[in-house]
Amino acid sequence: MARLQLWRLKRERKSSEGKYSKYIGQAADADEKESRIMEWIEERERIRDKILHLRSMQLSATAEDLGIPVPPLSDKESWEEGRNPGTVRLTLDAQSKLRQAIRVEQREKWSVVVFLLKEIIVPLIGILGAIMGLLSVIHALRSK
Fold first, then answer.
1. What is the spatial distance between Cα 21 and Cα 78, in angstroms, rounded to a whole number?
2. pLDDT for 74-121, tens place per residue?
3. CB neighbours of residue 11 within 10 Å
4. Cβ-contact 63, 71 below 8 angstroms
5. CB count, 10 Å around CB of 29?
6. Measured between alpha carbons, how far is 90 from 53 in angstroms, rounded to an integer?
7. pTM over 0.90
């Protein structure tokens, strides 16, 4: 659900760029053009704020699911106020650190799966293949 929202926001941001580009180009004079540019900047910042808030919530949820500690809201170096009242978001630096911690944790979990596959399942499949081959040979010899 959150990925769909994020996709929609990115699409909205791209759409607004095209719309405002045309809108700014139709300005009658420099003052109107400047006013329209300010409207575009405000719209872009509104969308950016929503994207950053949504990404922060996604990262926090993923980190919590993996057992990675999320910085508390009281940590002003990690969290900042959003443009909309009552919203907060992780700073870009905090998002980067949390993303890195998530990657490390996921890599560790995958290493267990790789170990199981490489050291246990693949040899087991090899043994089963050898047994089936042996059974085929025995069956072929008995049929004669």
1. 34
2. 898 999 998 888 888 999 999 999 999 999 999 888 888 787 778 888
3. 10
4. no
5. 8
6. 7
7. no
